[in-house]
Amino acid sequence: MLYFAYGSNLHHFQMKRRCKDSFFIKKIKLKNFRLTFRSKYRAADIEFKKNSIVPGGLFEISKSDEKKLDIYEDYPILYKKYYFLHYGKKVMTYTMVKKTSFRFPTERYLNVVKRGYKDCKLDLKYLEKALLIK
Asked: According to the model, what pLDDT value does residue 98 have?
């Protein structure tokens, strides 16, 4: 199945460790969403915002990878699944259940996300915009 990563799962080494069958396909942009950080974990989340874009990585994952991600993402308590179409193909991603206010991510977590942006060759300006204090 296809999976869209936009936070720490963009980090190729970490993603491979979590999901042994995962394979990075390419970078894509999710339209009409914006990146933010929230919850007590200060983790990445996406929320609907017209004319906004979230860059991310498109991965092929197996059923067992999906089960591992479900555990890691604390599905369905912290994150729920969101599906969208990319060139007619169904893509799964996660979005937080409770849309709490913005919380600046920890330095450690942010460094993992930044590394993921490098791994997937994403434009850091989207991440920097998400970190501007709201």
From this structure: 97
pLDDT tens digits, 2-56: 999 999 999 999 999 999 999 999 999 999 999 999 999 999 999 999 999 999 9
d(CA 90, CA 2): 7
List CB contacts of 4: < 8 A, sequence separation 6 or more.
28, 30, 56, 57, 58, 59, 84, 86, 91, 92, 93
Q: Which domains does the chain have, with CATH numbers?
A: 2-128 (3.10.490.10)
> What is the CA 28 to chain-centroid distance, rounded?
12
Fill in the amino acid letter for 24. F
| Cα separation, 8 vs 11, whole angstroms | 6
Residue with tokens 């994403």, as numbered in its chain: 122
Contact 73/79 with Cβ under 8 angstroms?
A: yes
The one-letter amino acid code at 89 reads K
Q: Give yes or no for residue 133 having a pLDDT over 80.
A: no
Closest C-alpha among 99, 57, 55, 59 to residue 79 = 99
Average pLDDT over residues 93-120: 97
